[in-house]
Here is the input.
Amino acid sequence: MDSAAPYLTGQADPTASGQVLGLMSGIVHAAGWVLTYWWVVAAAAVVVWMASELVVRHLARKASTERMALELVPSRHFDPGFEEIFRRGVQLARASTSMPWWAPRRSKTVQLRLRADGSSPLRYRIEGPAGGERLLSITPFGPAVTVNRARPLVDKPRDHVVRAEFMLRGKPTAPLREVPLAPDPLQPLIDAVSDLRAELGDLAEIRLDIQRAPKWSLRARRLQLMTEARRAERREAQRAARWVRQDATGIEDSLTWQLQQLVGGKQGGGGRRLVMPPVPRRVDPQEALGKLVEDDHLVRVQLLVMCASNVEGRPQARLGQLQAALDVFGGGSRWAMRGWRVGPWRFGADHWPTRRAFERRWDLGHCQPPRANWVRLDELTGLLKPPTVHCRLPLLAGDLPTFEHGNPDLLLQGIYRGSDGRRRLVATYAGETLFEVGVGKAGGGKTERALAQAIGWAHAGGGLMFVDPHRDSWPRALPFLAHDHLMQRIALIDLNANGPAPQLSCWNPIGMHQGQVAHEVVEATADAYASVLKWDDATAPRALTIFTAALAVLVAVNEAACQAGRPEDQATVFHLRSLLTDPAFRIPALTAVEGRLDEETRSWWQTVFPTLPNDAFGVVLNPIARLAANPVTRAFLGQPAGVYNIRAAMDSRMIVWVCPGGNGPTDRLITALLARDLLRAVRSRRDTPESQRVPFRPYFDELITLTGAAPETIAAMFEDFRKYKVHVHGMTQLLARLPIPVRLSLVQNASTLASTAGSQSAVAPITAEWGDRPSPDVVAALERFEHYMSLTVEGRRVGPVRITGPHLDEVFADYARPRQVAALERAARATAGAAALDQLTDRAGDQLTRVSGFLAQHAPATPPNVQLNKKGYK
Here is the structure.
């Protein structure tokens, strides 16, 4: 009863009161202690924070060691759609979480690295968790993008480095600008790094980290934005109410209002009217949150940039270019450099206290973005893929090597003007420049470019053959080839016979003094005639048979003369007439070489030839008669042992200039003989091991003229010569005028495809090979000496890129020796065995007598059973 007394009597329990007073006193004393010793609490909080931060950093560093890197290499025709890019973004966001459960959030990220160091226009890498490699390796881009496992990149220290971090500025809920996919959104960034110079140590790299949005952070951000929106709406309502009251008060105190009250008899009647202030309107979450209203495909991003160089000032200029390139993505929000500016100084990622944090995130791939860096995946579509077909890539030294005079591994192509205005001579590697095709109108610079290339190749020690029916290239090239170390390697085969005392070289297409194979010589000569005269097994079988059989006999005669040590007694193609129509020549010839002919050929002469009518030989002898009627061609082809030997020229790196003299029927026949002999000589290289075959480059100017004489031969060259290290360069005004076999072989096998200006219809076949990028109208409007060309470098196609054709007087100005031109002309003719035209003509006229004399001396006695018919043969 004693214990309940206080309650029964209504008195307070002194114990409970004491406890309450004690608790309040303890709280007061604790608050006082905290206020007195606040620094202890702060220090403890700092210690706890630092300990937790050290643990998080340790775990994040450990998680960063379990990362992998992939490099994406797009094809030339990579053209993804928006849906493909968006799906790639979803993959990246999903892969960012493929980390162990204990990994801190800052390490759960996928990083896109856009890097340029002067060796390539832009390298596109993806770095992320090792657990996400499978997801990242299979892209929605399909075979248009090759995904390669990439090694870590190790940069050499540069003397000057600048760093920057970009954050989103502007309205935090507004999206970035929707940048179209054509032209490529990466184009401004690639343009900003297009003039990087590797030799100066230039480097620029952009790293975009993508991280899935944490739910708690997103909710906090939304709550903050909604609170700010409501607060702003209340402020706006209060401001509006204040202006309404001020307006109402001003109206009632005005003279007009008072006069209205007097006239209406309401003075002082109603007092001031009641003003209803506006009510704050309800905040719409869709309007207040903008792009943050939904969780789907919302990510946080971190954008870091680093520029370096060994030259002071270049990194700062490069950073400014990249900042301007990022402005392209600016809309309601934009990318802005993080930091603050004080006068001329800027404090950001390059300065204390943020520099160490920047370097840690840069080196380890950690993502700690500003709280404003929330974006949706569709805002990043321009950065979620490598460069596409709509991107114009610069041509760097790593893409196309710089030409070096005297370097036998490089082949001059032209002059490239970079985005910074610098001009450099560019080249391709000689070993992989197999065939070249140049198209364009007359005077556009095709021949000048070919001459520059040929002269550079000659000075580097290479062998070549330049075939020019019009001869204009020879006097143009003379001053730049007039060097002592070249004179002994140059031979001029000129059939134009200009001047009062013309000199001419000579060649016997069926001569055997140079070690040729008999059946190859017969085949080459017969095919040359057949191609010019349009003979085949269907249209002229008898003419082709007669011609081949006659050649077999003459070649056998020449083989016998050479084995007898009398090459000066060899027959020529002009002795076909005597062989077919003169028994006095035919009988000794057939008797002398009967043992050298195969059974089928002997049988033909014994059984078929006697049955042929006299008019059967006209179709065969008519072209021979035309050749004999021309003193130049008779002198050129009528000599028993000409000096011209293209196989020897190839093997000894000779420089042979051939000027056939025109495009008439006779000239076409000469051209066809030369072309077929070249084909025979190149194919004869099969007797030489591949490693010992000397590279050789024939240049064919005016392909229309040359292919008119030997279309199948020229086509075969573009198909077969690669195997024998002989690389053909062809030039023509109109690709459409070439025979179909030649045109198809040219385009199919061309390592370099070039076009100068011309009509749109003329250049359209070339631009079609480039996918009409550039279009025919762009190429047709080129200035003189300007080319668009595609080239092959290290097995991949470069271009089409615009290149200025080299001008001899500019590129080879130091090589010009105009005072030695006459000496070179004499040396070139002497090497080709040139002699006076009259002398060669007289020798050709006497050659039948010498051959007949040789046959008379070496023909065995006629067997007793040989009986002559009316044609003089049994």
The longest strand covers residues 298-309. The CA atoms of residues 119 and 397 lie 7 Å apart.
